[in-house]
Structures are given as structure tokens and as C-alpha cells.
Amino acid sequence: MDLVKRIKCSGLDLKFFLMAENFENYFTHAKQIAKLAGDILLNSYRSFHDSSDQNSKQLAIETKESNDANIVTIIDKQIQDFIIDYIKRTFPRHSFIGEESTENILLGNEPTWIIDPIDGTTNFVHGFPYCCVSIGLVIKRNPSIGVIYNPILGQMYSACEGLGAFLNDERLGKSPKAIAPLSQSIVGLEFGNERTDSVLNPKLETFANFIKAPVRAIRCYGSAAMNLCMIASGALDIYLEAGIHCWDIAAGVVIVR
Ligand code: LIP
């Protein structure tokens, strides 16, 4: 139905149309932000890993909570600043939550951008090519738009409520895979960065149960966002991670759904 006919129909239809138009506009911006942020990620990744001098000072790597398994780099912060600046200029009334600024996390009804500037920072630092920019947009508390861009592999996964999900320009889910029995399943598991017995032991027990089930294989990509993309594209059958944060999954859940 074209715009004019829809407006004539009823107030409700007009509201629906305007909402759909906003969603498309947000979706276009989300992909544009992810592309530009991904360019920053890729340039830094290349200049660090292609150089003969992989001095960690170049990335200003810091540990969080004195945990060597929980790190942040100056590039995470640069990318997050870039994304937040773009959103503030383009949508001044929107809110945002970012991995690198976690004070005052409140989710209200206003559109809220949930950002992980680099999901898979450890991979980024170690040259393991599963790291990405993850941008989710939650509207009225409902995850509505998601973009996950891995510039190293040249893969942009995206989804918008009402429009579907895509890998680059290809629509995902045209022929969904049947659910496989556990014995024929490939399972994504993540250990996370917490190493205390109380957190780690139940995870190890659960992981052991999976491998003994037996499942066909286990994979650890080191990025929740990338795991969810693997689920969306059918490469993984199951993904399990405990202790996840909203910025790890806000975009991915829209793409999977
Ligand atoms: C990672 C998370 C990722 C999760 C991994 C790991 P990094 O931390 O961001 O989403 O799946 O288990 O904890 O490498 O980004 O600091």
C-alpha cells in the first residue's frame, strides 16, 4: 500500500506508517555507524598486527578489575566515543548504553542505543579475527534493530523488526535449518572472563555435560555477538554463555529472532 492510500485509511495506519518510516531511518543510520566504526576497528587491527612492532602500548591495553582476562584498549574507547557522538548529533533525544561507560544504566521507553564498540576485545588484541562492532537499538524496551559488523571478515549482519535479517545484502533465514539432535549439533560455548571457583565450576560442569552428551563439536569464538551471528546463519546450532551483558547481545537477539 502506498503512502497516500495508507494515510487515508485511518489514524492507526498513519501511526504504523510513521513508525515504519522511523525504523527504516534508524536502520540506515545503524548500518552507517557500524560501517564507519568498523573502519576504525579495521585500521587499528591492521596497523597493530601488520607491524613488526606489536607493542601493546600502541593499543594502550588496560585490565579491568585487575583481571588479565578482562581487557579494554584505547580503540574500544575511541570507537565508543565516535558512535555516541554520531548518535547525539543525529538523534539528540535518544539515550545510549555503552560497554565502556556503565554508570547510570537505565532503560526507559525512549529509543536507546546499546553499544559494544568491540565485542571480542581479546580477539582484537591477539589477532583472532572474530571481533566486531555491535549496535542494538531498543525501542519501548523492545530490541528492534541490530547491526553487527566484523570488518576483518567483511561481514555485516543486520536486522530490523518488520524488514528481516541480512548478511551483507543477502537475506538470512530463507530456508531455516531443522533443529538437529544434540549428537549432530555444533555448540558455541564461552568461558567468560571470571575465574573464581564459584563462577567457573558450574560452567565447567555444564560444558562437560555437553561434550559427554555427546554433541558433535564445541566452538568458542570469544564474542557473544559473533556467536549469535553464527546461530542466525545456521553455522552453530546452540550457543550458551552465562554472565553476559546487555551490550553483548542487544544487536544479536534481533538478528537471531
Ligand atoms: C568477551 C565478551 C564476549 C564474550 C566473551 C568474552 P572481550 O570479552 O565481550 O561477548 O562472549 O566470553 O568475555 O574479549 O570482549 O573482553
Sheet having the most strands = 7 strands, mixed
Roughly how many Å is the radius of gyration? 20 Å
Mean pLDDT: 90
Return the structural class: alpha/beta
Helix content: 40-55%
Q: How are the strands of the largest sheet arranged?
A: 3-4-5-6-7-8-9
N-to-C CA distance: 26 Å
Low-confidence stretches: 1-5
Associated small molecules: L-MYO-inositol-1-phosphate
* Strand runs, count: 12
Shape: globular
Task: Give an overview in words.
The protein contains 7 helices and 12 strands. It has helices at residues 3-9, 11-49, 74-90, 121-126, 197-212, 224-233, 246-256, and strands at residues 62-64, 67-72, 95-98, 112-119, 132-139, 142-150, 155-160, 164-167, 170-171, 186-189, 217-219, 238-240. A 7-stranded mixed β-sheet has the order 3-4-5-6-7-8-9, with helices on both faces. Strand 10, helix 5 and strand 11 (217-219) form a beta-alpha-beta unit. The two termini are 26 Å apart. Mean pLDDT is 90; it is low at 1-5. Residues 70-71, 119-122, 190, 192-193, 222-224, 241, 248 line the site of L-MYO-inositol-1-phosphate.
